[in-house]
Design goal:
1% of the residues are buried. Helix 1 packs across helix 2. This protein has one domain. It is built from 2 helices and no strands. With 88 residues, the protein is mainly alpha-helical.
């Protein structure tokens, strides 16, 4: 069997933009969740409810740690700017 390496499918591409700001932790968490958790329409209700509860819990965790990452980046940038000021 010969496979054509140039005949492949690419998934859907989405662009998420903002105006005059970066993405919020909530927006980033939602983007990540769309890649991590998918709940189909044909799923039985008890399973769907459990999956949606899991998704919401995971969203809370992602938002918390993304906010922590944003604060950490600010701390790093402040330290780098202070070090730069001391050198000059």
């Amino acid at each position: 069997m010969i496979l054509d390496p140039f005949n492949g499918e690419v998934g859907n591409a989405y662009a998420h933009t903002t105006q005059n700001r970066g993405h919020s932790a909530e927006e980033l968490a939602d983007m990540a969740l769309n890649k991590i958790v998918f709940v189909g329409d044909n799923v039985p209700d008890p399973i769907k409810e459990q999956a949606l509860a899991y998704r919401e819990n995971l969203r809370s965790v992602l938002v918390f740690y993304m906010r922590q990452a944003m604060l950490s980046e600010r701390t790093t940038m402040k330290a780098e700017m202070m070090a730069e000021m001391k050198e000059n």
